[in-house]
Amino acid sequence: MTNTQHFPEEFGMSRESSLEQDAARLDACVARLGEARDMIASIIFGQDEAVDQTLIGILAGGHVLMVGAPGLGKSLMAHTLGKALGLLDKRVQFTPDLMPADILGSEVLEEGPDGKRAFRFIRGPVFCQLLLADEINRASPRTQSALLQAMQEREVSVAGYSHALPLPFHVLATQNPLEQEGTYPLPEAQLDRFLLEVRLAYPDQDAERQIVAQTTGRHLNRPRQILHTDELIEAQDFVRRLPMPDRVLDTIIALCRACRPESTSFDDIKSNVAWGPGTRAAQSLSLACRARAMLQGRFAPSLDDVSALAIPVLRHRFGLTYGARADGYSAASLITNVLSRIRDQHA
């Protein structure tokens, strides 16, 4: 149950708040999200953190980049998530010969019964609600850029005409971090459009035993629909309506600014970071913290949400210097150090 009985004044919400009036609907929404998470966890074993982060990305209305070795269930997670949330999902396997028209669609010249010819637009797989872009870094930059407008504006332009995409629209892209031969690194502009970078690790021994035991028998768990599209849209609306405490917002802004070499006061950032997260990163972290709070049945985000989501939201928005990579620095370690110092300052 959400904590909607009392509305602290520091959250900026009054007793007459519309969110308070919708408290029962909010409680029901949180309960349904809990059912969806439990169903996904019954199929995807040993990846609870990755499942939660991916679900947070969807609730926040964003796109998610999933990074992990082959065979860890990235594609299965995307399909299961789409089924649980009632989304129309489609899959595109990115390859070096994939063209933008294979994703967006194209116009074909057709001749009608009266003999007149006209162009007709045939929609590509991007016209769905959840697009699985499998191994997105295997396609050329030209093909990767075909998703830029779709991810940002929820529409595509073909032959001078704009076509709106179904709502909600989300991209779950997978990336193999091991084999880099024949791949094209995602441009920074596209990386920035992913709200979260979720990394899937190898499961522990107990989880791996459970996976093998339950997926090699005759009876397999099948994903089932828990939410309808309108319920997901309502949940995404609730996320944006949750109040943001000033202390949490100030920490988010301070963290993002401290990770930029132009505005930081920390020497390790100045010497090791070529470029840092922009304003979209702060917006993404704010939304992700709200979504995590709602998923856990809390009325407003806390500093613990910032700590839990700072790395997946910010690490793909960093550019380390050559010297930093040679010295073994990583975006995650720098973010952790900066966040620790900022929290001490705001304690």
Automatic annotation (TrEMBL):
Stretches assigned to the AAA+ ATPase domain: 60-232
CDD domains linked to this entry: AAA
Protein name (Swiss-Prot/TrEMBL): AAA family ATPase
SMART domains hit by this protein: AAA
Organism, scientific name: Thalassospira marina
PANTHER family: MAGNESIUM-CHELATASE SUBUNIT CHLD, MOXR FAMILY PROTEIN
Gene Ontology molecular functions: ATP binding; ATP hydrolysis activity
Signal peptide positions (record): none
SUPFAM superfamilies: P-loop containing nucleoside triphosphate hydrolases
